[in-house]
TrEMBL record:
It comes from the Bacteria. Belongs to the short-chain dehydrogenases/reductases (SDR) family. Keywords: Oxidoreductase. This is NAD(P)-dependent dehydrogenase (Short-subunit alcohol dehydrogenase family).
Length: 256
């Protein structure tokens, strides 16, 4: 288990799914975690779950579409624990739409929530990491940045942007000893996908098809993504920066 004792982490979208699993994993490794999420009830529950295991956490109602909220999160972590060592940019919304059908409001919503949010939080947190002498930033991307899936134009564009921003930020921040990496999950059974399946014309057909698309023959678990987040957040990955690690059961390399 990587030792994150005395480390301080901000995890966006930490109320549920991959963000919640990552926040719990970081807290179990000893980090104090600021749970940043727009969902007050689930966010408070995630904080309570961390504390119930003996971890340290605070919850701050945060909308990642707001620069002021990103600033407030950074300030709250520093006020509570004096620094920020780890930033996990995880919050996102899954809004589908074929490229020549999606409307501009949906496009802008996805890009602001899923991509510009990553820049907002890096912009607010990185200056503190610079002063502290280093840090680790982990962005949650998707295999959708690497392969085309029908009907996800804005979402895929946002994730492709995250991959480019990860590499760019890694180069910009390397002199300050801040590492920036991304995790690209395959299909993970979280509330996000439960909603996608609920809204599908034939949910079981979609579930079967997506399961079969992964060479390992199944969806992943949020905890399996959190393991890689934990690795990238910790000093065990001290010579890795600008990397995009797939946690996808082989989805992106399937050839037939
Ligand atoms: N589940 C998958 O199959 C899958 C696959 C690839 C990538 N991802 C990525 O993993 C990350 C987490 O996905 P998940 O499946 O756990 O999603 P989820 O919907 O289960 O959880 C997302 C969390 O983000 C929060 N959130 C949404 N909009 C927000 C906003 N404006 N401000 C603050 N918080 C906000 C939600 O309240 C929720 O707690 C996302 O970046 C997603 O794109 C997921």
């Amino acid at each position: 288990m990587p030792d994150l004792d005395q480390r301080v982490a901000i995890v966006t979208g930490a109320a549920m799914g991959i963000g919640r699993a990552s926040a719990l994993a970081l807290a179990r490794a000893g980090a104090a975690v600021l749970v940043a999420d727009v969902d007050e009830e689930a966010g408070a529950q995630a904080r309570a779950d961390i504390e119930a295991e003996g971890g340290r956490a605070i919850f701050l109602r945060t909308d990642v579409r707001s620069f002021a909220d990103a600033e407030a999160c950074t300030a709250a972590a520093i006020e509570a624990w004096g620094k920020v060592d780890i930033l996990v940019n995880n919050a996102a919304r899954a809004i589908g739409g074929v490229v020549d059908e999606i409307d501009e409001a949906s496009w802008n919503e996805v890009l602001s929530t899923n991509l510009t949010s990553v820049w907002r939080f890096i912009r607010c947190v990185a200056p503190h990491m610079r002063r502290q002498g280093g840090g680790s930033i982990v962005n949650i991307s998707s295999v959708q940045a690497l392969r085309g899936f029908h009907g996800w134009a804005a979402y895929a564009a946002a994730k492709g942007g995250i991959n480019a921003l990860t590499q760019q930020a890694a180069v910009d921040l390397a002199p300050a000893r801040i590492r920036v990496n991304a995790v690209a999950p395959g299909t993970i059974m979280t509330p996000l996908n439960e909603k996608v399946f609920r809204e599908a014309a034939d949910p079981q057909e979609l579930i079967d098809r997506w399961n079969a698309a992964h060479p390992l023959g199944r969806f992943g678990e949020a905890e399996e993504v959190a393991e890689t987040v934990l690795f990238l957040a910790s000093d065990r990955s001290s010579f890795i920066t600008g990397e995009i690690i797939r946690v996808d059961g082989g989805l992106a390399i399937k050839g037939d």
